[in-house]
Design goal:
This protein is mainly β. It contains no helices and 12 strands. The radius of gyration is 14 Å and the shape is globular. GO terms for molecular function: 2 iron, 2 sulfur cluster binding; dioxygenase activity; metal ion binding. Belongs to the bacterial ring-hydroxylating dioxygenase ferredoxin component family. Keywords: 2Fe-2S, Iron, Iron-sulfur, Metal-binding. It comes from Paraburkholderia piptadeniae.
Length: 115
């Protein structure tokens, strides 16, 4: 797994591009946090993995028309922006930058400041 760090973001290899079918989502866990990595027609995206309404992992949900549907109560979020789109979800998802380089889908995570 490659890691590249710049001033505010470090890039972590989450998977290979072909690990996710178009219109699908997969779970990626890293350093105690869980993320959802999506592939839709216009590219790859990532967000926090847990629904903001209840403890359901979005990787168990369904990708429908650029939205992820939570598997528990069917609330939907816009994949590119993380915006809550339908009840019962009302708190937006945190999203993360994604890029594809050298045969890897890289997730941009904030650098943790040392305490």
């Amino acid at each position: 797994m490659s890691v590249e760090t710049n001033a505010k973001i470090h890039w972590i290899a989450a998977c290979a591009p072909n690990d996710i079918d178009e219109e699908d989502v997969m779970r990626f866990d890293h350093e105690g946090a869980s993320y959802a990595v999506y592939r839709i027609a216009d590219g790859y995206y990532a967000s926090d993995g847990w629904c903001t309404h209840e403890q359901a992992h979005l990787a168990d949900g369904f990708v429908v028309n650029r939205e992820i549907e939570c598997p528990l109560h069917q609330g939907r979020f816009d994949i590119p922006s993380g915006k809550a789109m339908s009840a019962p979800v009302c708190v937006h998802l945190k999203t993360y930058p994604v890029r594809v380089e050298n045969g890897e889908v890289l997730l941009g995570l904030p650098v943790q400041e040392a305490s």
